[in-house]
Amino acid sequence: MKYRNILLVDDDTDDAEIFVTALQTINNKIKYSVENNALEALKKLQHSKLSPDMIFLDYHMPYLDGTEFLKLLRSVKELKKIPVVLYSGHSGTLLKEAVDKFKKVQFLKKHENFRKLTELLNDIITLETATKK
C-alpha cells in the first residue's frame, strides 16, 4: 500500500474520529494526522511539519474553504503533486467544479454508514496505489 501517511483536514471532530477509525480498520499501520483548521494545515504543509502521501479535505471549513486551500496548495511546487480527496457531506456544484478544476482531486461523500465509509476509503487507497504503479 503506497499511501501510508494520510492527512485529514476537517473541523468536525466527530467526523474526524469516524474517519480515523475507518483508516485503522483498513490498516492499522497507516499513519495519519488530523488538522481542524485548513489555514493551519496549509502553514504546516508549507513549513514541512506535515508530509502526507494523500490529503482528505473537508470542503466547508472556516477560515479557508476547499477551493482556496487547493489553490494555495497547488501554488507550492513541493505540495502540488499531493493527491487530494474532497471529503464532504454535501455534493453540490462547487464541489464538482473544484474536482474538475484541480488535478489529482477526487470526491468522497461523508457516509453515516461506517462499513460503507471503510469500503470507499479502502477503494480510494487501493485504486490510487494501482494507478501509481
UniProtKB/TrEMBL annotation:
Keywords: Phosphoprotein. The keyword Protein biosynthesis does not apply. Coiled coil: none annotated. It comes from the Bacteria. Transmembrane segments: none annotated. The keyword Transferase does not apply. Residues 5-125 form the Response regulatory domain. The modification 4-aspartylphosphate is found at residue 58. One of its GO terms (biological process) is phosphorelay signal transduction system. PROSITE patterns: RESPONSE_REGULATORY. This is CheY chemotaxis protein or a CheY-like REC (Receiver) domain. It holds the Pfam family Response_reg.
